[in-house]
Amino acid sequence: MSEETYNWDDGTDPGGDDSGVQHEPVVDPGIFQVYRAGSLTVVGFRGHDIPAGFWIGGYRDALKNIIKEYECEELAFDFTGVTTVPSGLLGLFVSLGDLGVKISLYNPSGDVREVLDATSLNDMVEIHTVEVDANGDE
């Protein structure tokens, strides 16, 4: 199957997650994007920080489907511009890693690295640093 670029900007989440606990709908600021889908799938946040209340769980099923459909071997998160990480994203790393896919983080901030160290997730994700210029190009 050919590799494709995905972009979901539907504006809101459904107000629930796989925990069965309902919560108030959270507005999705439209920053999450799948840049590339394939054996290497690349996702990111368009160079923006992740706002408080961002609900990544709404993308869990879509990411799982991409992993299966494209026989994804590595899921790379571009963390350029991200200084904080919501706890739901940490849980997403674990659940996607349980599918046997390698999880990589590119350009996480020092604060994000500290969170990964404190939660021992640095043992399950690979961390990379890539120089990026002011235009976001490598």
Describe the structure.
The chain has helices at residues 60-69, 87-97, 110-118, and strands at residues 4-6, 33-37, 40-44, 74-78, 102-106, 125-128. With 138 residues, the chain is α/β, with parallel strands linked by helices. The chain has a single domain, classed as STAS domain (Transcription Regulator spoIIAA). A six-stranded mixed β-sheet has the order 1-2-3-4-5-6, covered by helices on one side. Strand 2 and strand 3 form a beta hairpin. The longest helix is centred in the middle third of the chain and has 11 residues, at 87-97. The radius of gyration is 14 Å and the shape is globular.
Give the SSE map.
Elements lengths: L3 E3 L26 E5 L2 E5 L15 H10 L4 E5 L8 H11 L4 E5 L3 H9 L6 E4 L10
Parallel strand pairs: 3-4, 4-5, 5-6
Antiparallel strand pairs: 1-2, 2-3
Find the count of extended strands (DSSP E, 2+ residues).
Answer: 6
- What is the CA-CA span between the terminal residues? 27 Å
User: Strand content of the residues, in percent?
Assistant: 15-25%
State the secondary-structure class. Answer: alpha/beta
Shape: globular
CATH class: Alpha Beta
CATH architecture classification? 2-Layer Sandwich
Q: What is the compact description of this entry?
A:
The protein has 138 residues and is α/β, with parallel strands linked by helices.
Notable characteristics:
6 strands, 3 helices, six-stranded mixed sheet, 138 residues, disordered N terminus, Transcription Regulator spoIIAA, alpha/beta
